[in-house]
Amino acid sequence: ETENSLVSYFSRANWSWRERYVLTASLRRDGSSRFGANSRYGNFAALSGAWTVSDEAWAGALSRLMTLKLRASRGTTGNQQIADFGSRTLATAQPYSGVAGLAPSQLGNPNLRWERTTETDVGADIGLLDGRVNVVVDWYNRATADLLVNRPVAATSGYTTVADNVGSHRNRGVALA
Fold it and tell me: Could you please report the per-residue DSSP string of 29-41?
């Protein structure tokens, strides 16, 4: 049986003025025993804001027809979903001709680091007919870097894979609800 540990520190600040302008900022620091000493900790920040346009004095004609709130956010999260001890080279008990012995079981990577996903979102909340019809429109861009994968290595090394940060992925589009 193996175990892992995760320690997190989190801070968040909110600011609102007349419920018309809203800003939120957060900072998170995570540490995972699954990574080596070189990259055990990761910092992840986020910032978001919203503006209720229909509450502006100059938008009186607009507010009689609809409510409109514009939103934007950007933030980063981390992923540590790898095997325990992924950064360490391990051996396992392996008898040979009836004699106790050791055999390599996992190739370590001391430079293994957090997988990071950064998402940017811009959207609008629209209310029509006194709130009886609501439409939410969002454009999003989600980019993941340093993907945590088991990368193949030459079997002649005694191993078949090593945990590594390889590749990236992007997902973007428009969501309408």
Answer: EEEETTS-GGG-E
Structure tokens at 71: 């939103």
Q: Which of 155, 29, 158, 162 is nearest to 87 (CA)?
A: 162
Query: What tens digit of pLDDT does each residue of 65-96 get?
Result: 889 999 999 999 999 998 888 888 888 898 88
Closest C-alpha among 40, 44, 66 to residue 53: 66
pLDDT tens-digit readout, 51-72: 999 988 888 877 788 899 999 9
Look up the pTM and report it: 0.83
Determine the distance from the C-alpha atom of residue 21 to the mean position of all C-alpha atoms in its chain, rounded to a whole number.
26
Q: Extract the tokens encoding 100.
A: 């106790």
In terms of phi and psi (left: phi > 0; alpha: psi -120 to 50; beta: otherwise), the region of 129 is: left
β-partners of residue 39 are none
Residue 50 to residues 17, 27, 44, 81: CA-CA distances in angstroms? Answer: 11, 19, 21, 33
Amino acid letter at 124?
A
